[in-house]
Amino acid sequence: MSTLRENNEEAHLASEQAMASRQDFQTLYQENLNLIYRYVYSKVGNREEAEDLTSQIFIKAIRSVHTERGALSVQKWLFQVARTTIADFWRARYRIATSSLEALLDSGWEGPVQGEAVEINTSPVERVQQILQALPVHYREVLNCRFLLNLSIRETALQLGLSEANVKVLQFRAIKRASDLEKVINETR
Questions:
Q1: 46 in Cβ contact with 92 (< 8 Å)
Q2: Of 67, 80, 126, 132, which cross-links 24 as Cys (Cβ 3.0–4.6 Å)?
Q3: Cα–chain center distance at 77
């Protein structure tokens, strides 16, 4: 009789633990769904794919969540699951089939046609120099001091005779202008 009672108590305890675990996960889900969805959407830019990936993330989470971690630790872990799931998504999406040269020749490819335009890749250093030369002098000076000479905000301000706030503003505007110029340069290629 006592073993039957012990078995019932164990079953009841296991049932309570499962219910508590389910409630813990439900709380975790409700607290983090919006954050995870927005993060995923910011990385994929498509509502349907973001919803699918978010559900995959929570399915992975329910399989291996450790609720004895603190709430912040679980949230960090959940974002790590999200990052790896997104990486897997992009890896699968942009997997490019590669062919050997022999396979291409066997399939009838004759090589590049004479006179075919070949895209010239400029090195990153050349691109940076092009962009810097296109910037106004005061922007160029701030970027040179900050990123090429590795000066701090304070040192840059002293070097250029500006206030620290002014250096921060000029740096922000210079980076924005440089970004816009890079887009223009890439479009003209």
A1: no
A2: 67
A3: 16
